[in-house]
Amino acid sequence: MKRQSKVLSWIGLSSGLLLIVYVSTLFSNRVESLSSVLYTGDQVADYLQALAWFFSICLFLVLMPAHPKLRTNLIILWLLRGFISLVVMLFYESHYETLDAFVYFRDGMARTGSWDGFRFGAGTENIKSLIGIVNDSLPIAHSYHSLKVLWSFFGLMGAYFMFLGLKRLSPSVKPWHLLVFGSIPSLAFWSSILGKDPVQFFAIGLFIYGALSWITDSKGAFFALVGIFLASSIRSWTGPIFLLPLIFAYLIKPVSKEHPLKRLIKPIVCLGLVVGAYLASSFVLESFKVSALDEIVEHTDKMSRSWSKGGSAQAIPHFNSASDLLIFAPLGGFTALFRPLPGEINNAFGLVAGLENIVILALFIWSLWAFIRFGSIRDPIFIWLISTIVIWAGIYGFVSSQNLGSAFRYRLQILPFLVMLFIYSKWKSNEHKIQEDSLHS
User: Fold this and answer.
1) What whole-number distance in Å separates Cα of residue 231 and Cα of residue 206?
2) Which of 58, 189, 258, 331 has the smallest number of CB atoms closer than 10 Å to its CB?
3) ω before 416 within 30° of 0 (cis)?
4) Cα 419 to Cα 158: distance, rounded to the nearest angstrom
5) Is the pLDDT of residue 202 over 90?
């Protein structure tokens, strides 16, 4: 049976690779016309080099030391990402002449490939420097499509670390959960572009793995710190958003009587994290040049309006006081998490986004209902997930509400937490039902 399953897996992999080759060959004849908005070099050679990188990474995944089912699902996800990066993206890129990815590529190619240009929190410049370093360190040869494939691999590894974190969260997590999670349209697409999002998604996946390891058995803090540092290097406000809920969840977690020293270690560790969160918050405020409450309100009003561009732009009221911010926060948070809804953006992109958001909204409501029903709202994991989602939505609501397209892209940062909330609530619900059945039997 195992031999038959292995044969079928190899047949499926070979078929997928042949399909990618066939479709990519067809599209290689159209690369010049589809990529003409990007640059004037040899686009076909660029594209074929990207195919070579894609198959090299596929070979790495085939040889990767992992559970056979998990490895198979990683390969399937990579085939999906290959189709997105090398086929779907061509149409997306040909439709827009001013994509951020083009700017990252052009400016990154002009960099010297040195780490000297890195500055904490300067996400745009850091990504450009990283592109220059990758181009100089690997056989990329100024290939836009090859860089896009490598950035998509960042996204895949982010999903992989997210899955490893889920396994710490619930023993019922199976390899097919990775396949379902990694196939979410917005996740697969936005973590495959050349830009900040795939790298930050990788960092968030690393943070989630470390955070869940730390909460469950006080291990993995190193991964959490590395993940939060990388994510904050791209978007500095990520640090306070993700650290504060983690500190609170760890504080309310019961300490095992078998390890009395942890009663002393816990406050010391949490104090260090609080100091880190405070320093990160101070850095964010300083980078935006705000200190007083009035300045925060004024800056928020200006910043939110700067995103009101494009076909999915929305009009919102001005913010003149702190009370205006508080009143708008729930609506803005809902937009950041669950919009656009069906019918709000009338194109193929809007249709996919609307359908996905309806599903996520329904799962979110069910998750809250399950935790309230089974009396688990004091669970440290639940508190960590909910507080992270609420804080993130409260902040991003003031940006996402002005542009529903941006809202859909930014939600990639918090999507893992929404998925974890559902999986954890489902596991707790099943656990509660088993306990009830055992009592009645």
Assistant:
1) 10
2) 258
3) no
4) 14
5) yes
